[in-house]
Amino acid sequence: MIYWNSFSDFLAMGGYGLYVWGSFGVTAAVMLIEPIAVARHRKTTIARLKRQLRAESRTTAE
Amino acid sequence: MLEADNLECVRGERRLFAGLGFRLEAGELLYLQGRNGAGKTSLLRMIIGLLPPETGEIRWKGEPIRRAGESFRADLCYLGHLNAIKEELTPLENLLAAARLAGEDLSEDDALDALEQVGLAGREDLACKYLSQGQKRRVALARLVKERRPLWVLDEPFVALDVAAVDWLAGLISAHLQRGGLAVMTTHQRVDIPAGTIRELRLS
Amino acid sequence: MTDRFNLYRFASPATFYPLAGTLIPYFAAIAAVFGIAGLYVGMLVAPTDFQQGEGYRIIFIHVPASWLSMFIYLVMAGWAAIGLAFNTRLSGMMAQALAPTGALMAFLSLWTGALWGKPMWGTWWVWDARLTSELILLFLYIGYMALTAAIDDARRADKAGGLLLLVGVVNVPIIYFSVKWWNTLHQGSSVNLTKSSMAETMLWGMLLMAMCFWMYSIAVALMRVRTIMLERERHTDWVKAILAGGEQ
Amino acid sequence: MLNIVAAVAGRDLKLAMRRQADIVSALFFFVIVVSLFPLGIGPEPDLLRKLAPGVLWVAALLATMLSLPRLFADDHRDGTLEQLALAPHPLGLVVTGKVIAHWLVSGLPLALIAPVLGIQFDLSTDALLVLTGAILLGTPALSGIGAIGAALTLGLRGGGVLLSLLVLPLYIPVLIFGAGAVDATVSGLGGEGHLSLLAAMTCASIGFAPWAAAAALKIALE
Question: Which of B79, B157, B175, C155 has its CA 20 to 30 A from that of D164?
Fold first, then answer.
């Protein structure tokens, strides 16, 4: 079923390797970095909100 | 005539007030009191229909003001803490333009008369940028002289006025109430309004 | 009546937050499955194109990214319309959560378009109607994000952003057709994407990849909307309970 | 209904007349930007003729952008905007009046001075006529669409830059057909098709944009 004869053929992409892998590479990077960035943003947000909540409960307790 | 039920106001992340209501009939004046940031101006903006309340409803003559729209606004006169006058125009031009934009017919004689009453006689043709702060406020107040709309909403009307002007304005509001008008206003200083029933609403 | 009730219930952030949390792994998993299948079909099984050689394989990400960039803008406009009509809190948050993903899709579409254009047309960029419209779409995304970021009050940001989205959605077809018309006038037919009769496997690869991009976008947008919800509703009891419960 | 449009437009025109420096500086901006191009690209008449439509139109877009931030900002700052929103007529009509006044002090002067600048670019009489017509027909759309942006960015930090970011992409169709009309005339194809499309866009945006801008103003006034 597989169209390619060898792995190096696959990498070369019939001479278009740079363009094809440039496209796929950047896409893969974007789709990897975006969720990581969102998750990190979420973590820092939760940490900040927790700090605020603690500060608030301290001031209301006093 | 003017009723509010169960109003809730949220600005940004803060809830300023909730469950607020009042009724105001013809000839009555409502004082809104409260410290800075209690939501006085927000409540005024709800009453004039610029700020939709989070919950609750305001009705004018039994009809929700959001639905009444233009017919409510035709009964309303609002004086904000900003003067809404143009520095480049003269007091007379300002007054005539404001009346035209509000959809009223104000004759030049009436406008001159109003300016005389607020003590600006002789300055009708001077661009407003040459007037003092207090005089600019008087130009804004001159709108009220010939104003016959039933509902007046005034945001801090007595600020920046001298004693004589305060008395004059109190008299103007009294006359409005006597004619069967309604007024809602915020103020820091208590001013005696000689006529009409006075109600108070304290925001905390 | 019960349908209506349920709809409203899910539109409330307090119910939507946990629901989104449960759904994210599923969408991510489906995206991965579609992605693997799509890459397998597109990269390993599909034969070469007789006109464009192996370079055509960029199509497997270029076309899905372009579709998604337009689709996400439409979805955002849909949320905006719902938000302006019914004043629901969720709508604005969803629109804001989708915007960065949509912008990234537009960027990917342009990037892969350029990498495709270079070997095919001999230049990184042509003022082709599609590429130009895609560029303008990216500007529209950036404008929306800049506007909502500039407004401090979240509710006002939602409403103003929503209005901008609706104005944008009316304009997108006008822009597209004017660019297209301008393009044919200036370029003649020298630059034309040849519509080669696409092999069935190629079509399959493209559809699978499009599904992968779609599911991926949903998963990321849901992740983002959960953070926005926490931030916006930090003074409500349900958020305080979540924060106190020590959720990661 | 027409009363209120006329009243608003009349007041804005009167204000603009007392502040003529604003109109004149936008106009000079247009003149200077257009005059810079021959200096930057060289004096070959063939090249200039080819570039003229695009240069003139892009400069016209930028000159329009200059005056847009103030469209509602002055009224907002001194409280007049609230009074306008509380007047017993639809706010869309008020905005229509303001858009008309904006066009009269920004678009119309551009159209009047454009043929003079076109001469710098060695345009033929036909092309100059079409250029004037295109700017006359197209600039109302710029004022209308711009009003939406001005209302959306009212009172925001960095509103001016943000305004350009929002509005310039929406100006593209006007730019394409406006410059296209002159271009077609220069190359002898006739610009009528472009001009009628411009007119259609102007009609659509004059009818639609003030209402969108009014909705944005209500959001800004909350």
Answer: C155
Q: Is residue C76 part of a domain?
A: yes
Number of domains chain C contains: 1
What per-residue string of b and e applies to C138-155 under the rule 16 or more CB within 10 Å gives b?
bbbbbbbbbbbebbeebb
User: Domain limits of chain D?
Assistant: 2-221
Of residues C52, B124, B185, the one with CA closest to residue A13: C52
In a domain? residue C248: no
Question: How far is D5 from D8, CA to CA, in rounded Å?
Answer: 5
Residue D152 and residue C160: Cβ atoms within 8 Å? yes
Taking the C-alpha atoms of residue D171 and residue B20, their distance in angstroms, rounded to an integer, is 47
Are B6 and B57 a contacting pair, CB within 8 Å? yes
Q: Is residue C243 part of a domain?
A: no
Instruction: Collect all residues from C whose CB is shorter than 8 A from any CB in D.
Output: 136, 139-140, 142-143, 146-147, 150-151, 155-156, 159-160, 163-164, 166-168, 170-171, 174-175, 178-179, 181-182, 185
Of C174, C166, C167, C140, the C-alpha closest to D200 is C174
pTM, whole model, 2 decimals? 0.89
User: How would you write the pLDDT of chain D (222 residues) with one tens digit per residue?
Assistant: 788 899 999 999 999 998 888 889 999 999 999 999 989 888 888 888 888 899 999 999 999 998 899 899 999 998 899 999 998 889 999 999 999 999 999 999 999 999 999 988 888 888 899 999 999 999 999 999 999 999 999 988 878 889 999 999 999 999 989 988 888 888 877 778 889 989 999 999 988 999 999 999 999 988
C-alpha A49/C-alpha A42 separation (Å) is 10
- Burial group, residue B122, by CB count within 10 angstroms (0-12, 13-18, 19+): exposed
* C99 lies in some domain: yes
Domain that holds residue C140: 17-187+201-235
For residue B184, the cross-strand partners are B30, B153
Question: Across the interface, do C234 and B13 touch by the CB < 8 Å criterion?
Answer: yes
Angstrom CA distances, B74 to B60, C35, C92, D101, stand at 12, 62, 33, 25
As for the ipTM of the complex, it is 0.88
Beta strand extents in D102-164 (DSSP E only)? none
- The whole-angstrom separation of Cα C62 and Cα A24 is 9
- Determine whether the interchain pair D222/B103 forms a contact, defined as Cβ–Cβ distance below 8 Å: no
Residue C229 forms contact with A (CB below 8 Å): no
